[in-house]
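Supplementary Text 2. Reproducibility record for the structural model of the 179-residue chain.

All settings were left at their defaults, and a single model was retained for analysis rather than an ensemble. We include the record here because the model underlies the residue-level annotations in Supplementary Table 4.
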Amino acid sequence: MASKAGARSGARRSNGGARSGATYGLAPWLGIAVVAILLDQVTKLTILKSFQYGEFHPLTSFFNLVLVYNKGAAFSFLAAAGGWQRWFFTLLGLVAATVIIWLLKRHNGQKMFCLSLSLILGGALGNVIDRVIYGHVVDFLDFHVGGWHWPAFNVADSAICVGAVLLVIDELRRVRRGK
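Retained model, structure tokens:
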């Protein structure tokens, strides 16, 4: 009996404190991140080959495809900073990716948590790829109401936002369960 209890607690420890009993390893979560990166990069390449800078094509009364570049972060934060921000945001993305991979290894049995981190990881690395290759992030999704436009964004930004929302939902569910 004691050996069974020891085996169970050892399984919990190797699971990294996962809330569920099942562990999935790192591969499925990295696979989701790779899919997000591939979707991001394929859509960006398609837009880069199909559009000139600043060109836009209305698809609906509230949505355009447009080719714009962002040298800064969200909402063009620090876009006019003089060039250092390219490497700062690249380094920040790589540090975030390292921390996320560590968290994925540690908590690989927590499905919602790991799914959210995988999407954030894929989005962060998708934008890091742009910064390294082009010196800026390629944005092309333009939503608008009347004359007001949200800042253009891309699939990587969408993955980060969906991942962040799922992370909040996961935390709210965890708090509600009282764990």
